[in-house]
Amino acid sequence: QITTLINHKDKPKRSDKTLQAIQRVGQAVNLAVGRFVTVGGGGANENHELKEEMSVACVEARRAGETIAQLTDVASLDHPESDSHITIFTDKTGVVKAARLLLSSVTKVLVLADRIVIKQIITSRNKVLATMDQLEKVSSFQEFVQIFSQFGNEMVEFAHLTGDRQNDLKDEKKKARMAASRAVLEKCTMMLLTASKTCLRHPDCESARINKDGVFHRMRLALEQVIEIVTDSRPNGENEMAPISIYSGIKEFKNKVEGLRENLYFLSKENLSTMLEVILEHTEDFTDSAYTSHEHREHILELSKQAKMELEQLVSVWMQAQNQKTKDLMEDLEVAILKTCQCMNDLKREVHSAATSLAADLLKYHTDHMVLKALKITGVEGNLEAVAEYTCKLSEQKEQLVEMCRLLRHVSGTEPLEITCIHAEDTFQVTGPQIISAAETLALHPSSKIAKENLEVFCEAWESQLSDMSLLLREINDVFEGRRGEKRVYLSLPRPGKHNANLKALKPVKLDSEEQAKIAKLGLELHLLTSDVDSETEKWEDQDNEIVQHGQGMSSMAYSMYLFTRGEGLLKTTQDLFHQAEIFATEGTKLASALHALSDQVHDDKPLLLLEAEKLISMCKQLQITAKASAQGKSATFTKVDACILKTRNVMTLLCQLLPLCCKLLRKTKAGNGCLKPAPPWKEDRIRTATNARTPERRVDAFGIKSLENHVTNMTFLESK
């Protein structure tokens, strides 16, 4: 809105509509600033160190908002008595100054508010740690009950604060790490309860003490990691060096190889050779693994050998092309680039197949949880020999699952999923020995109800992680097959060798500054509509609903088209825009199909829903026809651009009406029946983080708060003896 004010054209003739629009924008800015500083100032009341700084920033922001409102109070300009009134038309620099002051003060408020939130999380963590120290040292049940009740309340508070922070994080990698740490805290809170009770009941049992110490240690590590993420720091100033996966290595290698088309001199042959060597070193994780099939191992070795040969050929042609840039040599270089990239794609496909087939087999084999069941039975029987036998089998199972996680990390395809694989590996590594110590304790005290309950809790954590792995495996396969990814990439732009064969014959055209100015208003309307659509999709609890996903996709594409009107973004030429409009129209048609499917489920407003769906199909067809129509000459091309943006705007306007209607119908028809799911539990949320990059973030509930609160209120279950 501020950009609109500053960029408005000073026309000698001002219509009433223009004057009213300017005044509305000014008032809207002032009201928004007022709401913003009210929230910002309120947040500082509990933090005396930053209260004064925050107050100054809020006053500055409010003053700037009021100045903008005064300068845009132009509705009465037609009256003679208002001639002396200073407005945006008489003092353009005043608006610019006020806008700068506003942006500066708003930034200060945001930074201060962020510091307050970080301090709240650190304070909450410190309270949890202090109470944990007390819990670790208690020697009586009565004392334990009192302290654990306090600990439970503190963990609930910490869960709410970190859940909100997780929603606010923009970095998908950090978000995944935060979700993993909070998952550990959720599970360990329950483990800490039963492990501590077991230790209090059997104070001289070494395996019970080991079991309890392991839980406390893991919780402290998770709490520390949360603070590292929140403060963006690591102990001793060390940098986090995550191991490079085969997928990310291949992606970077291919980017460099394909970059040779544009520039023959931007990197050395040694760089490319080193990158390939690193990738092939990582494939040894597959070829050296005892769990990789002979067939997969042979294929990976063959493709590794072929990749070296293709790179040698590429380097040979590349060096010749640097010395002599003939047409034949450039064609040979193109062939060498394509062959090298194809070989790397084949290698990627092979390691993906090796990892996912191993994971599918292992998860299927271990679904019966026979080893865990046997440990529970032999533990209750007090059969130490049988427990020792089954703990060996569990250790073997743990090694298999850890290896599976390591191989899956290489093919996960996105950083958030890589982090989820690393978290799963850590969970199996830690939970395996904890199950063993809990089983040994039960075998030593077979009549102990608390020792039996403790073993159950650790076995449930193992089973839960195995269940998570099935979900993770589906996500990894989705990424590989292009159904999901680290970002929703809807910019299916023309690439060499793809889409229409005649695209190369079309001369790419950019809008000049005059054309951009003409289309700016339409672009801004499109921008506002994308905000409205994002706001509507954010209201849906089930973010995986087909209607929501199509809506988010269309919003993302419309936003790219808006950026094009400003000469920004990934759509560089008019041909890019037309192609994007076609994809947008296709997405709209898919949405219409989803609406037809919804109409079969609803009773109220069914005719209205079908009518709107038909209207959407018609508008999308019109847009496709416009986007595909040929346009010769500058004037015709601009007319086509204008028509595409206008028709996209019309579709988005309809979408703004459709989303709340569908949401209402779903709530009405399937209330409580799972159509609008509750916010996903923790374990699903940390895997789904990979999929929502540009789209508005979902709220996540604080981890296991209900179950934790139940534990806190039901502490009377502790045995009194």
From TrEMBL:
UniProt keywords, alphabetically: Cytoplasm
One Pfam family this sequence matches: Vinculin
Gene Ontology MF terms in the entry: actin filament binding
Listed transmembrane segments: none
Keyword Cytoplasm included in the entry's annotation: yes
InterPro entries named in the record: Alpha-catenin/vinculin-like_sf, CTNNAL1, Vinculin/catenin
GO BP term (any one): Rho protein signal transduction
Record's GO cellular component terms: cytoplasm
Localization (cell): Cytoplasm
Principal subcellular localization: cytoplasm
Protein family membership: Belongs to the vinculin/alpha-catenin family.
Protein name: Alpha-catulin
Source species of the chain: Sylvia atricapilla (blackcap)
